Amino acid sequence: MGETRIGWRTAAAAGAATALLGSGAGTASWAAYRLLTTQAGTARGMIGRDTSKPPEADGIYAPHGYERWRSGMHADLHLMIFGDSTAAGLGCRSAAEVPGVRIAHGLADATGQRIRLSTKAISGATSKGLAGQVDAMFVAGPPPDAAIVLVGANDVTKKHSIARSAERLGSAVGRLHGAGSVVVVGTCPDLGSVTAIPEPLRSVVHRWSVRLARAQISATRAAGGRAVAMGDLLSQDFRAAPEQLFSADGFHPSAAGYALAANHLLPEVMRALADRDMAAADISS
To answer: 29, 82, 105, 168: most buried, per Cβ within 10 A?
Structure first.
């Protein structure tokens, strides 16, 4: 997510003809277009434009502390985060609330190891930006032991092709997996749970979100990664308690919302690492 929320005008225009059931060509389709375009503007006005930056979260996380990363420091495991503003933690007030930090702390507490957290995620990124983030990772140093990717919401608001978005995600996952990283993808959230988006526009973005998430799951698995269906797991909670789980902008998660997401991602990361270690042990025996 991020500043690309402004793309709802494009999304509304592209989806108008199908949003209102029974709308045909001519006057009805034009009415649908005008309605959704107006609603897109209303949603943008309610949500506003958050130009803040996520908290700085990179560093070494150990069972009993945190250290700012410096070259030459020891880490037992390197965790890297890719994707959009939800991956970076926009909406969090402190680093402790950032999803990557919660997962790094969870890994450290479970294993007793020193976990290095690095963030390549960029606010406003779509799946198009993943290639550049992975390129930056290869330039900066060796691939991480584990990679988490959270992306998709901006692909919906910009109305990118679902097939192409999933293909770009699969390419990024394949590159990371091929370099030896275990990869866990948190799929596109259900934007239908964002109450600041009025109906019927909310139903349009809900359908796009669901379709993209399904395509992301297939692409991720085909590329050797693991997928966590964030929309399926979280939308009911966000619909039931939006005032607690959304941040002040009404669009990004709050600290509590990010905590829920991290609680679903952490077990999958741990399973992926355990499977990797088991496979390595089988090879060496």
So the answer is: 82
